[in-house]
Every structure is written in C-alpha cells, then in structure tokens.
Here is the input.
Amino acid sequence: MEQGEMDAAEAGRAANCPSITFTVPRPVTGSGCPVTDHQASSAPVRRTTRKRRNGASAQPMRIAMLGTSNKTSELALRERLAFPPYDLAPAVACLGDAVPHGIILSTCQRVEIYVAAPTLAGVKTAVRRFWKEQRGVSLKDIDAHTCWLEDEAAVEHLFLLASGLDSMIVGEPQIMGQVRNALNVGLEQQTAGHTLAGLFRAALTVGKRARHETAIGRNAASISSAAVELAGQTVDDLGSARVLLIGAGKMGELAAKNLVSKGVAGLAVVGRSPERAQRLALECDGAVAMTQLEDALPDSDIVISCTNAPHQIISKEQVERVMASRPERPLVLIDIAVPRDIDPAAGDVPGVRLCNVDDLDATVAANLNERIGETDRVKAIVEEEVMEFQQWLAVRRAVGTIAALRNYAEEIRQAELARTSAVLDRMSDEDRRRIEALTLAFEKKLLHKTISMLRAEAANGNHRHAESAVRQLFALDA
Here is the structure.
C-alpha cells in the first residue's frame, strides 16, 4: 500500500469510527521537562478508535525499527523523544492508529519504535510523523539522530539488545524487564500483532539463553550500581558521606542495596509513595516524605535521583538555596532519570557537581573489559535465534493460503453434515459427537501433508510457487 493509499484508508477509518479525545503530556519546546497535566489539557491529542488484534494476520508481515540511543543522540534530545512510564500506554494506543502494528521500547538509554506491516512503503514517514506529533520534536532532529532498520537487521538489533550486548552496561539484567514491559503494553493496547509479539517473545528467549548459557550476566552491573560507583569516585570517602536517594522504584531499590553494601555514613530515601520509601528505609538510615525534599538536601553530600516523575523535581533555585546555607560543603548530584529529574542548570551553581546517565562511561568501560570474553558466545546465540525467527517468519508467509485451505475444507464438512442433518437429529448426543470427531479427523488428515508442504516451502523461500499450486488445485481464489 502506497502512502496515498494509507492516508486514504486512515481517513476512511476516521469517518467510520467515533473519535476519542485524551491528553498526552509532551515535552516543553527547548526543554527536557514534560508539561504538567493541567498544561497538557489545553492541547488534547485526538485519535480514532479502530479494531486491533494481537492475533495472527493472514498477510505476511515485514518488520522495521526507528530508534535512537545514547550512541546516536545527546541526553537533552533523548529525553524529549522518550515515552516515560506514565505516558507509554496512551502513546502506544496512538501508534496503533498510525501503523498496522507497533510496540515502543523506551529506556534511559534508548527509545525505539518497532512496527510490523504487510509493506513498509510509507511506514517510516508515518512513524516519523507520529513521533513528531507525540513529542513535539522536529522531523529534522528525528532524522539526524535516529536509525531505521528493516527486517532481519531490526530482528538482530533487538536480539542483541535483549542479550545484553548492546546495553550501555554489558550484560545488565534490567533490559529484560524493559523488553517484557514493552511487549505487555503493546498487548494491552492491542497494537502488538502476532508478528511483533512473536519477535519480542523470541527476544526474551535470547536474553534468557545468553544469561543461562554464558557468563555475560554473572555479577552484572546496572545503571543504578554504576551511579553508586560514580558517586564513590566523586568524594574522598564514600563511607563518611551522607546520601539522599530520590526514587523508591526498581532503580531506587538497586541503588539502595549498592549504597548499603558500600557502607555509606547515612542514607535517606525520598519516594512519592511513603510506603515504598519506608520499606527501603528499613535497610537505610531513614526516610523522608517527598514534601520534605528541600529540607533533606542541606544534610546530603551526594544526591542520586531516579524517579519516573513527569516533571523536574529539583530546580536550580532549590540548589542555590541549599548551597547558600552551606557554601563550604560541596554537593554531588547524580541524575539517572530520563527525562531528567534535576534542572541541568543546577550544575552551574558554585560547589555543585552534576552528573547524568551519559556520564557513566568510565564505569561502563571497566564493566565491558570484564565481559568482553563472553561476547562471541552470546553473538553465536543471537545468530542462531535470528535464523530460527526468520524461519518462523517465513512460514507465516503461507498463513493466508493455509487459512483459506482450512476454511474451504471446513465449509465442505459443514455442508455435508447439513445434508445428513435429518439422520443426525435421530442420533443420540454421544453418537453425534462421535460423527463430529470422525469428520474433523478426516479433514485434519486430508490436509496434513498439504499444509506441511506449504510450511516447508515457505521456510525454504519457495512459498509462492507452492501457494499458487494449492490455490489453483482447490480453487481457493474462485
């Protein structure tokens, strides 16, 4: 389908479907800070409802990915392109109106949009337009800092990512949960489709194999542990430092465990949920409520922030007030959230050192040296799984003909049963069930060799000739 045909089809859906209005928070132009709910309400995003399926499609599908990462874009742009957890589900719902099937993978290091469609003609344009409209980023910036991969290249990329080889910290385990979450959101929003669901499940299999069959994940580091290592490099003695941890989610938990293991002098936890903060505080020095954040800052030597807040939670003005009360005592701010929790301008305040997720390179390099010996073994697993997935995808090219053949056979079976309905009606329920099972068994056995042949030919890339012969033999196109 060409772009004009896609646009016409979309217009047709809009004309036939009731519209739904909902709000998607967007980054403020020129800033990495998403707008607040009351600001976003003035700029609603409209989309049309459409019937979506997570099941099989009768058409063979192609796969593509448009994405950016810490390798291709600066944090300032990446956080504007990101889809934070509070925004992911509505954004994926909108993506389902732009392309046949789609899944969004958004982490602190990368933002990637995966799509599946019968043809890729016009799909990249549709994804670029979707991204621009959702995040308020120009097409020029999107084109300059993203990568477009198609078919096997897109599959291999996701598998390398799930294996831990393409992560900032090689072998880190968090990517598995992020891939799983992306899949779950796509399934919940009914945008994943059979092909992308199969792709992401295969990626999870790759990740499990890589960590079970190699040492790539042994004693693996994480972004949180790297942040703690960076904190240790910024002060003379981490054991005498008082640390304020902002964020009681998964990353906060990992950071807290690492800080406790380092024996910091004191650790306070700030969380939006007092219960989660209190639970973390059982292993720490104490917990403070989010409303007491600024009161907790003056007592801290190091602040590590890792929330999913839709706005910045520490401003330059707050930091200036803190430093005015303790001008001789330096403050280290480590912001590993994307979008960022701390105003980048806070790093300009005298006595303050501000680090972000892209400043973890030194720790990352040390981690890579420890795991470099496992990369060849992991790549072999990825290569094997890519081939297996490509075969699975190839077999799916014959799905339309297989479905048509089964429907044809079932129509004949039902017609013949209907012709003998007068006789069947005089039978007992048990006898009718036996006749039903008998005819189904005949149908299955008669089709078995033909369907097996179609799958085998599809796996070998010869599906067109085989499908043509079957369709002609059974008059499936009549």
Q: What stands out?
A: Confidence is low (pLDDT under 50) at residues 1-50. The domain at 3-218+374-394 is CATH 3.30.460.30 (Beta Polymerase; domain 2). The chain has three domains: 3-218+374-394, 223-359, 398-473. The CA atoms of residues 246 and 270 lie 5 Å apart.
